[in-house]
Amino acid sequence: MAAYNLTLLLTFVMTGFGTYLWIGWLTGSVASGLVAGVIAAFLPFRFAHLLGHLTIVSTQWVPFALYACDRFVAHKRLKHAVLLGVCTAMVALSSWYYAYSVALMLSLYALVRSRPWRVHWHAAWWRGVAAAGAAAAVLVLPFIIPYLRARANQDLTRSIGEMESWSLNFYAFFLPNSFNPLWTSFMLTRFPQEATQWVERGVSLGYTALGLALVACVARRRQPAIIGMLAVWAVSYAIALGPSLHAGDRPILVPRPLVVLAANTLALVPSLDDVRNDLLDHQGFAIPLPSPFMFLFVPLTNGMRVMARFGMWTGLMTAALAGWGTYV
């Protein structure tokens, strides 16, 4: 029990410190790093998973990986590339959910952050990418082989229906924290799903953090790091919502007139007659988000049950942007 509690405590300290290092280095401001670190460490998402989800609370290596990524983008030094690989491996070993998400989100951040690519993508860049990949592979490979064997036996696959059942309402990130005693009664009355299923739906970002993040976006919108953070924020938000757009705890359906219009358009392509007939058989259809396409085309997605856990990235990017907001 003592070891478990100590590990939980360290996730707060290290998540905050890693974010402080990352944003403090980017801005050159201790205050900005402190603001970002405090927000990241005490995200409602982390508190929602505090009891029983140690792997999901183990967010501490993510900001260190982002810090190493930015150092590598800036200097192209091999030591920063190796540090990036080691930190990315530690993210993966903390949680397989984060192993999956870091492959997508960190790659997106590095891609956007390194623009213009013709300036950054030279020989030193590719040597560093190879070194980071090798360092990560050495640490992760002994653990990923048994995981892939289990997947081959269909022991770790989920259904799209199960993923759909954990879809978030599109406004979930902008609701008050339902565990705050000031808002508990209001949330139970107006937003019962978010309040009663707080463990997997507690993704509130906080209005102070959102306000500071908005200041950063307006004042420093041309900064490459800001653009990278916004890209990760937007993509992780869309993935976290689940397979289809929800409001009021149910899918938002496209109304029948638009369904008929879509069906008539599909009539121009005879090979899509089955799709057209299926549309006409229903009163409407749900608005798809990235998750169902990822389920079909991105390896390992069919092992993910709760895409709302991508909300960790949305929260972390909000914290990082809020730190920038105090620097303006």
Keywords:
328 residues; mainly alpha; two-stranded antiparallel ribbon; globular
Number of strands: 4
Radius of gyration: 21 Å
Task: Describe the global form.
Answer: globular
* Range of strand content: under 5%
The assigned structural class equals mainly alpha
Cα end-to-end separation: 44 Å
Percentage of residues in helical conformation: 55-70%
Helical segment tally? 19
Report the sheet with the most strands, covering strand number, pairing sense and barrel closure: 2 strands, antiparallel
Order of helices and strands: HHHHHHHHHHHHHHHEEEHHEHH
Topology:
Layout: H1 2-27, H2 30-41, H3 44-48, H4 54-57, H5 61-75, H6 78-94, H7 96-113, H8 117-120, H9 123-152, H10 160-165, H11 184-190, H12 192-196, H13 198-201, H14 207-219, H15 224-240, E1 246-247, E2 250-251, E3 253-254, H16 256-266, H17 273-280, E4 285-286, H18 290-297, H19 311-327
Antiparallel strand pairs: 1-2, 3-4
Q: Your description of this structure?
A:
The chain is an all-alpha fold and 328 residues long. The protein has 19 helices and four strands. It has helices at 2-27, 30-41, 44-48, 54-57, 61-75, 78-94, 96-113, 117-120, 123-152, 160-165, 184-190, 192-196, 198-201, 207-219, 224-240, 256-266, 273-280, 290-297, 311-327, and strands at residues 246-247, 250-251, 253-254, 285-286. The strands form two sheets. The protein has a two-stranded antiparallel sheet. It has a two-stranded antiparallel ribbon with strand order 3-4. Helix 1 (2-27) packs across helix 19. The mean pLDDT is 88.
